[in-house]
Amino acid sequence: MRGHIRRYRGRWAGVVELERDPITGKRRQKWVYADTKKECEVKVAELIYKIEKYNAKHYR
Length: 60
Fold this sequence. Notes:
This protein has 1 helix and 3 strands. The protein has one helix at residues 37-53; strands at residues 2-8, 11-17, 29-34.
């Protein structure tokens, strides 16, 4: 599972790459936003944990 963080319109945005859609083959991503970089890092880490623990299908 990969993710990265960047500045986006005055806020911090984190994106996590999900598995490709099995039918269409298109990329799927989940974005999270926060006011500080540290908050965004925590949100991305939590999202990666949830995806790996449960299943990426819940995050379409």
